[in-house]
Write a structure and sequence with these properties.
By secondary structure, this protein is mostly helical. The protein has a single domain, classed as Helix Hairpins (Orthogonal Bundle), CATH 1.10.287. 76% of the residues lie in helices and 0% in strands. It contains four helices and no strands. Helix 1 runs antiparallel to helix 2. The longest helix has 24 residues. The protein is globular. 11% of the residues are buried. One of the primary rRNA binding proteins, it binds directly to 16S rRNA where it helps nucleate assembly of the platform of the 30S subunit by binding and bridging several RNA helices of the 16S rRNA. This is Small ribosomal subunit protein uS15. GO terms for molecular function: rRNA binding; structural constituent of ribosome.
Length: 88
């Protein structure tokens, strides 16, 4: 589970302005943290299929947000991808 402290740190890192919690970059970064946390969960709980369904929904939502950001602002998209290390 992503703690409140981790969320605050992610928001402060990716926010465009003070109090920005809803920009695309912040949303993608928070989803990425949740996805990484669930991947750690699956290393010990291999048969947790209900959580796997939630993971697939999170991955899909992150993908849609990244596609939106790519259409709107390619530079911000490239910077976010590089910062999070999503593409190779």
């Amino acid at each position: 589970m992503v703690t409140t402290e981790q969320k605050k740190q992610i928001i402060s890192t990716f926010a465009k302005a003070q109090g920005d919690t809803g920009s695309t970059e912040v949303q993608v970064a928070l989803l990425d943290a949740q996805i990484k946390d669930l991947n750690e969960h699956f290393k010990t709980h291999k048969k947790d299929f209900h959580s796997k369904t939630g993971l697939l929904k999170l991955v899909s939502k992150r993908k849609k947000l990244l596609e939106y950001l790519k259409r709107q602002n390619l530079e911000r998209y490239k910077k976010l991808i590089e910062t999070l290390g999503l593409r190779k």
